[in-house]
Amino acid sequence: MNFVVTPPAAVSVPVVGTADRFPVHRVYCVGRNYEEHAKEMGFTGREPPFFFLKPADAVVAINAGETGSIPYPSLTKNLHHEVELVVAIGTGGKNIAAADAAKHIYGYAVGLDMTRRDLQGEMKKAGRPWCIGKAFDQSAPIGPITPAAQAGDIHNAELYVQVNGKDRQRSNVSKLIWNIAETIEHLSAAWELQPGDLIYTGTPEGVAAVVAGDTMVCEVAGLGTLTVRVT
Ligand code: MN
Fold first, then answer.
1. Domains delineated in the chain
2. Which of 27, 98, 131, 210 holds its CA 20 to 30 A away from the CA of 76?
3. How far is the CA of 221 from the centre of ligand 1 (A)?
């Protein structure tokens, strides 16, 4: 088949233990899914989960042991890190019950939901979409995907991000307001999940700014580290 313009390159993420790669379909993100982060953003109480998306080509896949880089994005003066557990969907479906969710998971990775916080705040205040604050180019760095069977006890895994060697965010996946299975139940009621979907499950407290020259080292226990430099 011929195309009238060059088709975009497929986006993919390395997989631990194989040279084969995980192809990215969509990138879903959960908002305010840790209580202490919800509080620092000015919200309290358990609200139904809500979602936003990033374009697949916002993914920056970084190999194990390598330092990746992202450019400091345009328009912002307040670029925030949000370290997150990322769920990789291997089997699609809609209206997936929480009890069946595990069967749909291929694996897990550590990711960063980079956020132009000032622009997100302006959009929130105006009641407008968050896209410009969340869904910008190279806003979704991610490390290699660990297949679920090799990921250990992911539901009780510690996660953190350090910037230039100092702790910024440190929490535990057990503190998710909506856990992985519940998130998949809610998400698949709204969209039909497809193999290749990534779900950024939300960030704990401690979100803060980075500037050009900063290096972020992130980890979800059992999934290795993700190192990203802002240039
Ligand atoms: Mn987030």
1. 12-230 (3.90.850.10)
2. 27
3. 18
7 burial class (0-12, 13-18, 19+ CB within 10 angstroms)? exposed
Q: Which residues surround ligand 1, an ion (CB under 5 A)?
A: 82, 113, 203
Cα 28 to ligand 1 centre (Å): 10
Q: Give the distance (Å) from ligand 1 centre to CA of residue 3.
A: 35
What pLDDT digit, counting tens, does each position of 40-60 carry? 988 876 788 999 999 999 999
Residue 124 is encoded by which pair of tokens? 């929130």
Cα(108) to ligand 1 centroid in Å equals: 16
Tell me how far apart the alpha carbons of residues 120 and 118 are, in angstroms, rounded to a whole number. Answer: 5
Ligand 1: centre distance to CA 1 (Å)? 38
Please tell me the distance between residue 217's alpha carbon and the centre of ligand 1 in angstroms: 17
Question: Measured in angstroms, how far is the CA atom of residue 42 from the centroid of ligand 1?
Answer: 15
The pTM of the full predicted model, rounded to 2 decimals, is 0.98
Element (H, E) at 190: helix 180-190
Which letter does DSSP use for residue 118 in this model? H
Contact by Cβ (8 Å): 49, 30: yes
What CA–CA distance (Å, rounded) separates 15 from 21?
6
Task: Give the tokens for residue 195.
Answer: 């193999």
- Whether pLDDT at 114 is above 90: yes
